[in-house]
What we know:
By secondary structure, the protein is an alpha/beta fold. It has helices spanning 12-15, 37-45, 53-56, 72-83, 101-106, 125-133, 152-160, 174-183, 209-213, 256-266, 283-288, 304-317, 355-366, 380-392; strands spanning 22-26, 48-51, 63-66, 88-92, 117-120, 141-144, 164-167, 189-195, 203-208, 222-227, 273-277, 296-301, 322-326, 341-344, 372-377, 396-402, 405-410, 413-418, 422-428. It folds into three domains: 12-123, Cobalt-precorrin-4 Transmethylase, domain 1; 126-227, Methyltransferase, Cobalt-precorrin-4 Transmethylase, Domain 2; 243-428, Vaccinia Virus protein VP39 (Rossmann fold, 3-Layer(aba) Sandwich). 28% of the residues lie in helices and 23% in strands. A seven-stranded mixed β-sheet has the order 13-12-11-14-15-19-16, with helices on both faces. A hairpin with a 7-residue loop joins β8 (189-195) and β9.
Amino acid sequence: MTHLPLFHDAPAEAALSAPPPVLVLGTGxxxxxxxxxxxxxxxxxxxxxAAPRRLLARFPGKRHIALACPLEPALRELEAARxxxxxxxxxxxxxxxxxxxxTTLGKRAAFAAPGSLxxxxxxxxxxxxxxxxxxPWHDLAVLSLHGRNDWLPLAHAALTRRPLCVxxxxxxxxxxxxxxxxxxxxxxxxxxxxxxLNTTEESVREYDLPEAAExxxxxxxxxxLLPRRDDGVAPGPRFGLDxxxxxxxxxxxxxxxxxxxxxxxxxxxxxxxxxxxxAGSGCLSLEAAALLPRGRVVALEREESRVSxxxxxxxxxxxxxxxxxHGSAPDALDGLPDPDAVFxxxxxxxxxxxxxxxxxxxxxxxxxxxxxxxxxxxxxxTLNTLLDFARExxxxxxxxxxxAAESAPLAGSLTLKPLNPVFLIGIFPGDAPDRRLP
Length: 438
């Protein structure tokens, strides 16, 4: 018989001075879990049982601690009971270390000492759902949206195109997940929804994303996203956009040579956060997303019609980690996450435009250490304004002029039509001051 850790299994010398360990038992799935004989013996020895309310009635004669949100009062009561020398057992749905209470307890100072916390695993909802689907789960990514409001981990996981398990709640439902993926063009999945596992009301059903988006789910389901095996070119972010596949605002967008040079100056790392200010049709945001598989892109645009273009382009290309904000800089910057890099593609033009001085100042104040700012300027007045800003503050900076031409048909052959020359001004507030400046 496999030996299970008991309350008195600590070394004898430690047991004399330390309270007994808290045992965390994974109960698996289902309303009324059955316990093996050795586990039942541990529960018989316990004086205190912490568990979801539906399980507490099974343990009469013991002190009960109800595990319910908010958890903090229950956790403090559990810690106090242990310090009193009580034998405490915590019952955890599924597996305690898969987005479970075992992880929460392990991070608390009260359980930092070796032997203060002992965990017996259980079968998780994810494992049970995979068994129903006959899906090997050794390559499955797992994340939880239960009680959370940050969906960026879901966007990152979707980019990998691996099978993905998502724990949900009433607000972050399977339907909300389907809508999120469809709106952002990450429609390369089908969805399996598992609920009430190991009960008489168990359900495991597969949906296409548009079908799942229209369903009414009660909450608490486990979602398995399964990559589709479609033929053809896979959607998703890539460097080198086909502009013919985008919706553009009358040709007013950052052209490919400018994007390539700007992205080089921005020197993006895979987990950076990028602001694209004055995003226009979103071309630079869409292309930058390919360089940020673990990062985030925020496209800010003041014109509502262009915001609609960015949304449509995001859906067409499939960019789940691109956030779109309708607003004007610098006023709209307050609610954005601090950036590692910023591209200013619009809003600086004209000698009398106050943003020419205000916006770079606001951006420099928000950049993380080592941050980079790159601005595009078609006007000499904008170039001079940005150079004055950098010089006055002793910031390292650089200027690049891009002059390019694109082929066009002529007389049965090709000719070259020049694009408007553009200055790219790189300003690096996170670096040491430029000592070469007077």
